[in-house]
Amino acid sequence: MRTKLVLMASAAVILALPALAQQIVPQPVAPAPVTQNSAAGSSSISTSPEGAADETAVEEVSNANPAASLGPPTPPVEYPGWARRDPWTVGALDPRGAGLGDDPWGRANGPFLSMLMRRMATPIASRWAHIALRNALLARVHAPVNVHPVDWIAERAWLLLRLGEADAARLLVAGVDADRFTPKMVQVAVQSGLANSDPAALCPLEDGIRKYDPAIRALVEAMCASLAGQPDSASAMIDQARRYGRIGGVDLALAEKVVGAGANGRASTIEWDPVDSLTAWRFGLATGTGMVPPDRLMNAAPLQLRAYAARAPLLTAQQRLPSALVAAGMGVFSSQSMVDLYSQIYDSTDPTDLGDSDAWQLRQAYAGKDAETRLAAIRKLLGTGKDGLQKEAARALVARAASLVEPSAKLGGDAPELISAMLAGGYDQAAARWIPAVNGMNAEANDRCWAMLALAAPNVADVGTGRITAFIRRDKSRDRMRSALLVAGLSGLGRISTDTANSLNRRYDLGLGHVTSWTTMIDAAAARDQPGTVLVLTGTGFQTPLFERVPAAHLYHAVAALNRTGQDFSARMIAAEALSRT
């Protein structure tokens, strides 16, 4: 009987171990000492020190034996002190590497910057301004004064999302400890998860969603229960949301589809016919389960959603391609990103289907058998751009291939687009190799190429007034818009004197002397050496999707401020882009 009681007590202890293991952190046990018997010429291992209790004995744990009872469990520690992140300094880019110095915001007022960022209409006119602004928002620098650090991160992430930068926004959101989220940060984090086609990203936010976004609470809880391996609870929550919730139709069906993608496995049919618009919720849940919304909804969606679709991880490269062209035109995708995407399409296409596909043409642009074959492929790819964004995307796509073309005056018909393509990819030095060849081209090609190179080429000290005057006289654009942008860019870069710029402005009525509160603010930010503030104000001054609508005075002050704050490359690329895209 004694043996039976002992065995029963042992079983009780063993059954309790799994639960205890979840609560108690095991303490390290010192290894047993090893002793050697030299007299016998052999070694033996002692499993317990002398005088220790026999470890094989079983001691019954009960209320009658409190000495053997276990102490209280150690409270869980989610964030050790050494693992906490400083909310005042959150970012993914080294500011010095991005050309922003150590203190991009200086003493700029945080609420003022937040207001500018919140009110900025997107997308902005310039692809290169977009890229520079994104880098400033991603810089790992101290938050400006008079602003809550987490709310400041939320404002940065929200602007990035409105620029179409889903991945960049996610980097900022992930840099903040979840227990420090403010109401604004919770809302932005929800939008970031949807933009990244990641419904699971909503699960760590459940507590905040209950407080600050209750409309989606029930559906988020159901999705997260399924993803956590609780299919019965998830099904019950979805059924309850269908009966009593405020969200129905396709929004509920998509949440049910996410539930089915988890441990639940329940099927859900999505009816897109009654849907007339694509919201962030619909986009995020659809693409998060590998579903592409219908073309009519995608084509009518905001450009930001198109940029999100370009990087949706569950979509194929071919499915992402139309949106990738939009993303590259905006500045979300780089030239290299586009080449990588086309390379994936090339690899996944059957050789018999390559034919004259764009993926094949891109290969020919790099590896064609001779110069004419490569140039013909570049021409064909450049011809695929239908509207402004797609045209700029095509230029970015062939930028590297264009930089390998040997400059020649005989290529006057191709030179403007080749130079535009190189500048879209940032190959300023490769573009500058065309300067000697430009002089042998006809007047129209000469003017277009010369204007871009005068602005983009590095190490240009001065530009002759006579050449500028000849350009202005031949300019056929409305209200001499291109001439105004040229003079604005040259003056902002310091490649013509202030007196020369004023003289040309008065003679041809270019409108460069227009002064507003915005011009005053960006000049003051440059004088105080605040490159980050200058970039936010540049975005504010470029709030239009078309470069034709950017006032020449805005280009002048933006380029001058960027140049003054050590952002020479961005200043040159933005100025040259103005002539390339008009």
Radius of gyration: 32 Å
The shape, in one word, is: globular
Helix coverage percent of residues? 55-70%
Number of β-strand runs: 2
Q: What is the strand arrangement across the widest sheet? A: 1-2
Low-confidence stretches: 1-59
Kindly report how far apart the N and C termini lie.
98 Å
Mean pLDDT: 88
Q: Structural class per helix/strand content?
A: mainly alpha
Characterize the main sheet.
2 strands, antiparallel
SS strand fraction: under 5%
Number of helices: 31
Index terms:
582 residues; mainly alpha; single chain
Outline the structure in words.
This protein has 582 residues and is an all-alpha fold. It is built from 31 helices and 2 strands. A two-stranded antiparallel ribbon has the order 1-2. β1 and β2 (42-45) form a beta hairpin. α4 (149-162) runs antiparallel to α5 (166-173), α14 packs across α19 and α15 (335-348) crosses α19 (388-397). The chain is globular and about 85 Å long. Residues 1-59 have low confidence and may be disordered.
